[in-house]
């Protein structure tokens, strides 16, 4: 609990002086005024986050949190829960989508078991920080206790701190957990008041009957638990997930340490939504990677206040959209250091 409290105390506004210096540089570049659009915005944001008008990215990583969900008992997923533990193994062997794309962009992958139902200790490379083996079925009661939710957030904070201390200056969020679009949708409904039908998507590809079960499960979870939208940790503990809580901690930890964090898809955005409710200033440290094919993801991003960089109709999760966004974030730093200004060219403007 102390780590959670001290982390929140360290989250401050961006450095306005270095942001202004970055904008001054951008406005002097040998281009039409702010012609690089959102790339300019990211560059100035990075300058404000990292406290320098010339931010640089040296090392980057995707932190994947793995956790299972009791709500799968309601028939909300097209895949069995055993897939979660199997994919944790695949991550360590380097054969998953996130491994492929991370290798492509030069990012490392950090894999954490924060709540997988099966045993992942037999897979070298999986960091063992299990709070409990999966959440309870939130359709019949709270997914976890408040204490477990805060403990999971603190695991995420610790993971962010460790990677930043090891020299990673660009973090990204990734997830693994069969059934996790259901708690993510429920979190969105709890915070916004939207109906279960408005927030529920097909996730891993459930059919019409599966979608009905999902909508019903969300409705049950909200009715049974009555999460308080004015208490983000209450909402998270009652209708969230352990990996969502862990990713919430990663985001808060990055903000406290003044490092940018790229938010992946629907699950990561659910964590970002919780982080935003806990600490509104943390949004300033987030970069939205992509808008996924999940029905309500655009609503989630708008609620947080994030503009996605990409729209590729992806719905894999794992941090894949965030990994693809990394080169664009790096490119934003280069326009502050590598481009000529009109003054460099001796041209009056």
UniProtKB/TrEMBL annotation:
SUPFAM superfamilies: Nicotinate mononucleotide:5,6-dimethylbenzimidazole phosphoribosyltransferase (CobT). Keywords: Cobalamin biosynthesis, Glycosyltransferase, Transferase. The active site is at 318 (proton acceptor). Its EC number is 2.4.2.21. It is an enzyme of class 2 (transferase). It catalyses: 5,6-dimethylbenzimidazole + nicotinate beta-D-ribonucleotide = alpha-ribazole 5'-phosphate + nicotinate + H(+). Pathway: Nucleoside biosynthesis; alpha-ribazole biosynthesis; alpha-ribazole from 5,6-dimethylbenzimidazole: step 1/2. This is Nicotinate-nucleotide--dimethylbenzimidazole phosphoribosyltransferase. It comes from Thermincola potens (strain JR).
């Amino acid at each position: 609990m102390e780590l959670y409290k001290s982390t929140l105390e360290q989250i401050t506004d961006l450095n306005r002086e270095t942001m202004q210096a970055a904008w001054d540089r951008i406005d002097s570049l040998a281009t039409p005024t702010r012609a690089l659009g959102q790339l300019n915005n990211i560059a100035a944001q990075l300058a404000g986050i990292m406290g320098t008008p010339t931010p640089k990215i040296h090392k980057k990583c995707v932190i994947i949190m793995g956790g299972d969900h009791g709500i799968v008992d309601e028939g909300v997923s097209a895949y069995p829960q055993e897939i979660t533990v199997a994919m944790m193994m695949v991550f360590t062997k380097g054969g998953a989508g996130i491994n492929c794309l991370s290798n492509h962009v030069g990012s490392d992958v950090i894999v954490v078991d924060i709540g997988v139902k099966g045993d992942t200790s037999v897979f070298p490379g999986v960091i063992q920080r299990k709070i409990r083996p999966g959440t309870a079925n939130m359709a019949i009661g709270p997914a976890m206790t408040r204490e477990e939710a805060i403990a999971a957030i603190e695991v995420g904070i610790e993971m962010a701190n460790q990677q930043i201390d090891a020299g990673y200056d660009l973090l990204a969020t990734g997830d693994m957990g069969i059934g996790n679009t259901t708690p993510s949708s429920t979190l969105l409904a709890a915070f916004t008041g939207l109906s279960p039908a408005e927030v529920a998507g097909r996730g891993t590809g459930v059919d019409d009957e599966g979608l009905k079960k999902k909508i019903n499960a969300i409705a049950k979870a909200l009715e049974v638990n009555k999460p308080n939208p004015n208490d983000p940790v209450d909402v998270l503990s009652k209708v969230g997930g352990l990996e969502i809580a862990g990713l919430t901690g990663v985001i808060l930890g990055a903000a406290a340490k003044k490092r940018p964090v790229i938010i992946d898809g629907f699950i990561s955005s659910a964590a970002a939504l919780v982080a935003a409710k806990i600490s509104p200033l943390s949004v300033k440290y987030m970069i939205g990677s992509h808008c996924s094919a999940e029905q309500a993801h655009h609503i989630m991003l708008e609620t947080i206040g994030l503009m996605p960089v990409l729209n590729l109709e992806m719905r894999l999760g794992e941090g894949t959209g965030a990994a693809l966004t990394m080169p664009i974030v790096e490119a934003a730093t280069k326009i502050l250091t590598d481009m000529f200004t009109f003054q460099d060219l001796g041209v009056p403007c």
